[in-house]
Structures are given as structure tokens and as C-alpha cells.
Design a protein that fits this description.
By secondary structure, the protein is of the alpha/beta class. The protein contains 30 helices and 32 strands. One of its GO terms (molecular function) is thiamine pyrophosphate binding.
């Protein structure tokens, strides 16, 4: 019975032949009682064997194949059986068939029109799987019937223009202008047309209900958009109070090769049922065109089906022949209902083909000759379905032609309108509009980030107190000690890193700003410093969250340990941050270098999202950073990578004005900081919300400084009259006698504490000044200039713990050069009227110090030298002894006056 069928014989025919061999005709007519696990009988309880086989074959051996037996719920399995096996369940009214034909005509007509007008342009057309458009429409129609009001979609480039045109009803003229080489009216780099997103609210004519549709912009990094969509969906559900996902849902489209080939798909699936990440069911649609670029399916996966990854979350999988539109619609109805009933993921696998190459100028016969000989002979699904409906007398040939001609005329009129346009607007493609956020605001005026002392005290005491029912709620003894130490700090009007963070979060919550902190171990903190969730030591799942109990009318606070994922979780938090600008969304890496497995999200979405897609985000990335002798991993958060991707010009000193700092923030793509005090950390978090716009914030957070006795701040640095300090200047005795200072050291982050300790040991407190650059990018040109001018007789040194080819040095060096060469006078050095400076030659000496030789003493200007570790391929040594030797050497170099 399980032998392989002969060539040119379907498995169904093979099965029938085998059954016929084993059974007499009389057996086929024998009546059998039907078990309760099948629904093929309809109202009948018994059927002849011949009819049983016939009905099962019609259900499972034609256009639809269903994988569901692995689901460990009998209720769910029977639910699927009922919707597959019930006699007549796939029958459709004539009007439904006409609607499918009309939608299929639009999908096919759109691709045909583009091919006719722009034959040599890349557009990644949908030819071969045009049924996707009617399928998506059916999913949306059914879902809106069940109460869904907002659908958020993510998809790769294939078919995107068709989805924008026929699903979202993006004006065709706006799509067509993307094919013309027009200048943009607004700022940004823009992106190719098949990466763009959109947002629209319109009436769904099938259900007569309003529906919001968003297609999230994404790059060619296939499947990278998946977690972004999920985060955006979750956020919209959160802010609507849609705790069951009945009003907001996500739809993800996939290619077959990417679905099984990209690891982020697996990571995203595993968020699907986590309490703080679930979107209560996603409908996945796979455009399965049998080929990944030129890769044969036999070379693209090891599993039987590209959809097998979905089995890990017990998602039912419906494989359906895309050349059978009515079967596709039936599957779409089941998928929408499944999601509505069970709030779990479901997969629709549209088994189709790709009529042309990967793009329209690709020749598929190079690599797939046999397949494409068959494809060339295969008529389009529109022709097949139109012929079927004509035979059934549902439509006439004239009606088919009339529907085609009408849509072609719509396209032609839009094309003529698009030719009158002289510019394009990137904002037309915004996928996350923030209604009312920018209106009425001065884009160069930020609110203050300091708060009243009574607020600090109240939050500090609440955060430092045990649960109200402390007699019943047993907390760990270690936590008791931590809380007592915190309360002592509050009474002394000081904060450490954890307390400063809690005060930033708590004060924002008091102001009605939702705060969300996500990542591995964030509830406790990787270094056991945070403790935002206290656990009852005797009762499972009993917890207390002090920051959720600060004020009776505060905003909600979400702190959640994530799965062991960076790519998907960072993408999720980015999507969450896109939904509401009045929220502080933070992702913390367990260690800073863990961000490298989320590099795709950082490069393609976080760093360049606004430039490409006019999409702002206030996402905060917290990256523990610092070389502390713990080996190459977990030392460096790769600060240099973020700085290299910062968009400020190293050779341009912006005009100085009162709005200098905020204008820099407005113009840059993101903010990169390495704070050295809890107060500055407090301010920079609050500044994220105080700004009249949103920029991603990358913070190098500490490890050893979390408990360093000197890494504490006073309430005086956080009250109403204070703000974030882009630079913390020298405040010791050296600042009081600046003309005696022989060396001015600039540094950033935790190395400051090593430098101050070494300065005391070298007895150089009076002659060496140390300034901390807290905000590295955008570079504080104006404050660096002031600090250099304050010490006219000092050599200027940049000191860092990272290696010379890493850390801030490659970024700050040219910018210091711009500062020092930009100013007419800095101390005793004079810039010539023609702006000439002598050429500076740099050399690397054996002791690791960059020394400068000046070719013309008359025209010299000040320069900056480097003191730190030499270049290296690895981020840190694995030897503790070597680490200590390197640290001593960099400190000695820093103070070699």
C-alpha cells in the first residue's frame, strides 16, 4: 500500500489501483459506520466504502493538502477536519466567483500594465502567483467580519507593488511615479520602490466596515521584517487594550526559500506564544514559487516542505494549488476563522510558480531549463479560471473582457496623471504615521529632563521598599539587603546606576509615558543590579513589581525577559517603538556584543530607517560595554560600528547657536552615548521623551560601574534645574588653575574612573585635566572647543580602553582635528587668515603612543594624540595577566606628560 507509484501515476490513482487489487467489488459497496473523528458523512452516520474513499479523495487528494495531525489537541484537529471534510463545504455562490474573477483580473492586469510600460525595469512581479491578491483580500474580508479593524502586513519584494495597489489601494499614480527619475521633495535617501511601505484607512466594501491597512517597509534582507511587524502589531493591541488580538492582527508573507532558509523566521515563531510578545495569532502566506533566486528546492532545504518550520508551534499548514482559486479562497476562510477562534498562527502555502526570472531582466532558462519549458506552456490562472466560469455560465466572454478593459483604463489614466508629476514625496510611503505628534511643536525646542526632588524621593522610597504585604510575601535575603542599601542611598540623596534608571522610568510613568524594557535577564538584570520583579520565595509565579506601584494613575510599565534571541527581539522592540512616539521602548543586550546577531536590524532599520522610509523611532539600545579582563566576548559592544554609521560630517563644524545641541540631534540618524554617571543616564533616558522628535539611542552601559563606589550621583544633579551633560568637564583642582595644566585628557565611559585613580597615584591632580565625552555622536563640537580653549598650555590626548582600531578613536580623531583647526584662536595658537595649517605626520611608536611631528613651527596648530591599546583583531585579550599589563600601559601613556 505504501509502495512508490509508477511514473505518470498520481498517488491517488496508485492508491485506488492497490485497493482494487485487494478488494472485491462487493467490498466496495459494503457500508461502514463512520467514526466520530470524520465529518465526510455530513448528516449520514454510515457510507459505502466506495463513497468513503471517494469523499476522502475529494477532500485530501485534489487541490488542498493539510498538515494538522501533529497538533496535540483533538479539539483543534477535529475543527480542521470539519471544515475540510463536510460535504459541499467548498461550494460558492455565483457572486463570490465573479468577485474572485474581478480581483484576479486586477492582480493580473496590474502586472501586465507594468510589464508593458516598463519592460526593462525591476519590479519583482507576481506573475505565476497572481492568486495572492484575491487570497489576501479574502483573509482581510473574513477577518474584518470577525471584528478585526487593523491589519499590519510584512512581505518581501515580490508582489509588493501589486499588494500596495490592490490590497492597500495606494493611488496608482504614486506607484507609477516611482518608476520615473524624479527628485524628492523631502529629505532622506529614499529606497527602491519594491521596499516601500504604506498606511491607509479605507472602507472594506465586502463587509462595509472601516479597516486600517499597513505594509511595513523593509529591505531586501528577506524575513527581517517579520519581528518588526509583530512588535508593531503587539504595540497597537497594547495601546488599544486589545488583550486577545480581536481588533488588530498581523499577516506575514514569505517566499518558500526564505521561509525555510532564514533563521529569524524560527526566532519570530518562538515569540508567538510568549506572554509579552504574542500577537494572538498571525496568518502566514507563503508565495511558494518552487525556487529561491536560482536555487532548486532540493538545494534550499533539508525538510520535505518549506513550511515545516511552522510545525514547532503547532500551526496548521494548508498547502493549496494556486491555479485553483476557489480552493485558495476556502483555505483563506479557514485560516481567518482559525485565527479568530484559537488565536494561534496558521500557514497558507500557495503552491505556485514564477513565470519570469527572479527579476524581469533575469533569464531563468540558464539554471532551470526543464521547469521553464513547462511554465511557458502553462496558461495564466486568470485564463484558466475565466474559461471555467464561462463553461459554468457564471460569466460571458464579453464580461471577462469588459472587466479587463475597465481596469486597464484605470491604470492608463493613473499613468497619464503620474507623468504630470515633477517630484516624488517619501512621506507618501510612511507606514507608521504619528497623528498630532509633530503638530504645534518647535522642532528645535526640547522640554527639560530634570524633575522635582520630591518626585525623586517618592520613587526612590517606593522602589527601595519591600512589597506592601511583606509579612506574607517572602523575598530573598539578598534582595532585603539590596533594598536596605537603596533606601540608605535615598536618605543620603544619592543614586547608583540601578536607582538612577528606576527614577528615570518612574518619573516618565508618573507623566503618563509607557515604559517597556525587554531583553534577556532584564527583570533581574544580567549583573543582578536591577530587580524590577521580586519573586516570592515560597509561591510559584507570585511576583511584585515596584515600578508598577508608584502612583495610582501612572502609565503601565512592562519589563519582560525575552527569549534567547537578539535578531527577532530587537526587531520586535523596534516595531513596538514605531507605533507610539509617547513611549520609552528599551532593549537591553545581555552583553553588548550580543547586538552583533541583530546586526541586520541595526543596519537596515535602526540606523537608516528614517533616511530610507521617513520612519522615526525612539528605540533605546542598552549595551553593556567595557574591557574588564573577561576575555574577547562580553567586553566590547563594538562602539566603533555605531559611530561609523553615524551620519554627521567629521569635517563640518556646525554654526554655533543656542539650539546647537538640539539641532545636531535633529539632523543625525541616531544618538550614541557612553555615560559615566547615573545622573547622566537618568537625563538621557528622559531626554528621549523630552525631544520634539524621535531618534534611536545607543547607550554603552556599564558592568563594574554598577557597583563602583564612585559611580554615584547626587539628587542635585537630577533636579529641575539640571539636564543631560554632553561633556562633563574637569571639576577638580586642575580646573581652578587651568593655565598650569600640562595635559588635557578626553575620554568616555568607565575608563574615566581608572584615569582618575591613576592620576592620583602619579600625583598629577594639579597638572592633568580629565574631561568626559558622554555623548559621542552627534559630536559635541562646541563643548570640545570650549574645553580646549580653557587649557591653552595643555597637550590634548584621547584616552580609551578599547584598541586603537576600535572604540571611539577612529570617530573622534577627525572631529577633534576639525574643532582644533576650525577656530580662529584656541589659546596661544593662531590660525592663518588663509586657513593654512602645516601638514601633520602621525607615527605609531613602540610604546603605543601616537606622536605628531610638525613640519612648520610657524603655522602649527594644536592636535590630539592617542593613548590606549594598540590595534588588534580581537576586541580583548583572554588573559587576565595580559589585560592588567595593557591597562597599566594605557594609563602610563595617558599621563606621560
Amino acid at each position: 500500500m505504501t509502495s512508490k507509484p509508477p511514473d505518470n501515476t498520481t498517488y491517488s490513482q496508485h492508491l485506488q489501483n492497490k485497493v482494487a487489487e485487494l478488494m472485491e467489488e462487493a467490498d466496495m459497496e459494503r457500508v461502514f459506520k463512520l467514526p466520530s473523528t470524520t465529518f465526510i458523512g455530513g448528516k449520514e452516520n454510515a457510507l459505502p466504502l466506495k463513497e468513503i474513499l471517494n469523499r476522502l479523495e475529494n477532500t485530501y487528494c485534489r487541490s488542498i493538502g493539510v498538515e494538522f495531525m501533529f497538533i496535540n489537541s483533538l479539539e483543534q484537529c477535529n475543527w480542521i477536519r470539519q471544515r475540510m471534510e463536510t460535504p459541499g463545504i467548498m461550494e460558492m455562490e455565483k457572486e463570490q466567483k465573479r468577485l474572485i474573477l474581478a480581483r484576479l483580473t486586477r492582480a493580473t492586469g496590474f502586472e501586465s500594465f507594468l510589464a508593458r510600460k516598463w519592460s526593462s525595469e525591476k519590479r519583482f512581479g507576481l506573475e505565476g502567483c497572481e492568486i495572492l491578491i484575491p487570497a489576501m483580500k479574502q483573509v482581510i474580508d473574513k477577518s474584518t467580519e470577525y471584528g478585526v479593524e487593523s491589519v499590519i502586513m510584512g512581505m518581501p519584494h515580490r508582489g509588493r507593488l501589486n499588494v500596495l495597489a490592490n490590497i492597500c489601494r495606494k493611488p496608482l499614480s504614486q506607484i507609477f511615479t516611482q518608476f520615473a527619475a524624479l527628485e524628492a521633495e523631502d529629505d532622506g535617501s529614499g529606497d527602491v520602490k519594491y521596499h516601500l511601505g504604506t498606511y491607509i484607512e479605507r472602507l472594506n466594501r465586502a463587509t462595509n466596515k472601516n479597516v486600517r491597512l499597513a505594509v511595513v517597509a523593509n529591505p531586501s534582507h528577506l524575513e527581517a521584517v517579520d519581528p518588526v511587524v509583530q512588535g508593531k502589531t503587539r504595540a497597537e493591541q497594547f495601546y488599544r487594550g486589545d488583550g486577545e488580538g480581536k481588533k488588530v492582527m498581523s499577516v506575514l508573507l514569505h517566499g518558500d526559500a526564505a521561509f525555510c532558509g532564514q533563521g529569524v523566521v524560527y526566532e519570530t515563531f518562538h515569540l508567538s506564544d510568549l506572554p509579552d510578545y504574542t500577537t494572538h495569532g498571525t496568518i502566514h502566506i507563503v508565495v511558494n514559487n518552487q525556487i529561491g533566486f536560482t536555487t532548486d528546492p532540493r538545494h534550499s532545504r533539508s525538510s520535505p516542505y518549506c513550511t515545516d518550520v511552522a510545525r514547532v508551534v503547532n500551526a496548521p499548514i494548508f498547502h493549496v494549488n494556486s491555479d485553483d482559486p476557489e480552493a485558495v479562497m476556502h483555505v483563506c476562510n479557514i485560516a481567518a476563522e482559525w485565527r479568530n477562534v484559537f488565536h494561534k498562527d496558521v500557514v497558507i502555502d500557495l503552491v505556485s510558480y514564477r513565470r519570469y526570472g527572479h527579476n524581469e531582466i533575469d533569464e531563468p532558462m540558464f539554471t532551470q531549463p526543464i521547469m521553464y519549458k513547462v511554465i511557458k506552456k502553462t496558461p495564466p490562472v486568470l485564463d484558466k479560471y475565466a474559461e471555467k466560469l464561462i463553461e459554468e455560465k457564471v460569466v460571458t466572454k464579453e464580461e471577462v473582457k469588459d472587466v479587463w478593459d475597465k481596469y486597464d483604463k484605470i491604470c492608463e489614466e493613473a499613468y497619464l496623471a503620474s507623468r504630470k508629476e515633477t517630484t516624488i514625496k517619501y512621506k507618501d510611503w510612511l507606514d507608521s504615521p504619528w497623528s498630532g505628534f509633530f503638530e504645534g511643536k518647535d522642532p528645535l525646542k526640547a522640554s527639560k529632563s530634570g524633575v522635582k526632588e520630591e518626585t525623586l524621593t517618592h520613587i526612590g522610597k517606593r522602589f527601595s521598599s519591600p512589597p506592601p504585604n511583606a509579612a506574607e510575601f517572602v523575598i530573598h535575603r539578598g534582595i532585603e539587603r539590596i533594598l536596605k542599601a537603596r533606601m540608605q542611598m535615598v536618605e543620603n540623596r544619592t543614586v547608583d546606576w540601578a536607582l538612577g534608571e528606576a527614577m528615570a522610568f518612574g518619573s516618565l510613568l508618573k507623566d503618563g509615558v509607557h515604559v517597556r524594557l525587554s531583553g534577556q535577564d532584564v527583570e533581574r538584570g544580567t549583573f543582578s543590579h536591577r530587580h524590577h520583579v521580586l519573586h516570592h520565595q515560597l509561591v510559584d509565579k507570585a511576583t511584585y513589581r515596584p515600578l508598577c506601584n508608584l502612583y495610582p494613575d501612572q502609565a503601565p510599565y512592562t519589563v519582560c525577559n525575552s527569549s534567547l534571541s537578539e535578531f527577532a527581539v530587537l526587531g520586535f522592540e523596534l516595531g513596538f517603538s514605531m507605533t507610539n512616539p509617547n513611549a520609552l521602548v528599551c532593549w537591553e543586550a545581555q552583553f553588548g556584543d550580543f547586538n552583533n546577531t541583530a546586526q541586520c536590524i541595526i543596519d537596515q532599520f535602526v540606523g537608516s530607517g528614517q533616511a530610507k522610509w521617513v520612519r522615526q523611532s525612539g528605540l533605546v539600545m542598552l549595551l553593556p560595554h567595557g574591557l574588564e579582563g573577561m576575555g574577547p566576548e562580553h567586553s566590547s559592544a563594538r562602539l566603533e560600528r555605531f559611530l561609523q554609521m553615524s551620519s554627521d560630517d567629521p569635517d563640518y563644524f556646525p554654526p554655533e547657536s543656542d539650539e546647537f545641541a538640539v539641532r545636531q540631534l535633529h539632523d543625525i540618524n541616531w544618538i550614541v552615548a557612553n555615560c559615566s554617571t547615573p545622573a547622566n543616564y537618568f537625563h538621557i533616558l528622559r531626554r528621549q521623551i523630552a525631544l520634539p522628535f524621535r531618534k534611536p539611542l545607543i547607550i554603552m552601559t556599564p558592568k563594574s560601574l554598577l557597583r563602583h563606589p564612585e559611580a554615584k550621583s547626587s539628587f542635585d544633579e537630577m533636579n529641575e534645574n539640571t539636564e543631560f551633560l554632553r561633556i562633563i568637564p574637569e571639576k577638580g583642582t586642575a580646573a581652578d588653575n587651568s593655565s598650569n595644566v600640562k595635559r588635557l585628557i578626553f575620554c568616555s565611559g568607565r575608563v574615566y574612573y581608572d584615569l582618575t585613580k591613576a592620576r592620583e597615584e602619579h600625583n598629577l591632580v594639579d597638572t592633568v585635566a580629565i574631561a568626559r565625552v558622554e555623548q559621542i555622536s552627534p559630536f559635541p563640537f562646541d563643548l570640545i572647543k570650549q574645553e580646549c580653549a580653557k587649557y591653552p598650555n595643555a597637550d590634548i590626548v584621547w584616552s580609551q580602553e578599547e584598541h586603537k582600531n576600535q572604540g571611539p578613536w577612529p570617530y573622534v580623531q577627525p572631529r577633534f582635528h576639525t574643532v582644533l583647526n576650525n577656530t580662529k584662536t584656541i589659546g596661544p595658537f593662531v590660525k592663518n587668515s588663509d586657513g593654512f595649517f602645516s601638514r601633520i605626520f602621525s607615527s605609531w611608536s613602540n610604546d603605543g603612543v601616537t606622536k605628531t611631528s610638525l613640519s612648520d613651527q610657524k603655522n602649527t596648530t594644536r592636535s590630539i594624540s592617542y593613548a590606549g591599546r594598540p590595534t588588534a583583531a580581537s576586541s580583548a585579550t583572554g588573559s587576565k595577566m595580559q589585560h592588567l599589563k595593557e591597562l597599566k600601559a594605557l594609563l602610563d601613556r595617558s599621563f606621560a606628560v
